[in-house]
Amino acid sequence: MAPELHFELSLYPDPVLRKPAQPVAAFDEELRAIVAAMFERMYASKGVGLAAPQVGLKTRILVVNPSGEAKDELLLVNPKILARSGPPTVFEEGCLSFPGIYAEVERPELCQVQACRLDGTPFEETFSGFVSRIVQHEYDHLEGVLLVDRMSPADRLRHKAALEDLVARHKRRAATPAR
Ligand code: ZN
Question: Tens of pLDDT along 88-118?
Fold first, then answer.
């Protein structure tokens, strides 16, 4: 059996959040362990979505759960957004990589996604509402696009101190020698 994994969150401006993620090649025991640990991290952090780069992995895996109930768990391996449609909607988004920062982001209402399940089976689904919102936010992470890029200049100014604080915390962590 693969050893159990535990992930810490990668916070802005960790460079891993800016690297384009690579497709998952093997649907194996390691992938299952990664996905389980990603769900665990997301629930422990009270998030509704998590992308692999947010736990330091440069791979195309998204976990989503809009309600926290087991029946609403959604896993997207190697997702591809085929189309976005519907009216533009505005919603206040947060991000586990930007603790305490929330900003309104405009996105199309619908997204049509192709992805693989845990066993590698491909599927296609069109998401709407809150799930579409989460999927589009998490998908951005796979492309190295972050909440700070999507927020308005006014919000960036409003959150200037909090963003600078994250940068300072990152520098302090980077300066601490690994044990
Ligand atoms: Zn995020």
Answer: 999 999 999 999 999 999 999 999 999 999 9
Neighbours of ion ligand 1 (CB under 5 A): 95
Residue 154: count other Cβ atoms within 10 Å of its Cβ.
10
Q: How far apart are CA 73 and CA 49, in angstroms?
A: 10
Task: Give the active site residue among 8, 92, 93, 138.
Answer: 138
CATH architecture of the domain with residue range 15-175: Alpha-Beta Complex (3.90)
* Digit-coded pLDDT (tens) for 145-179: 999 999 999 999 999 999 999 999 999 988 887 65
Q: Helix, strand or coil for residue 145?
A: coil
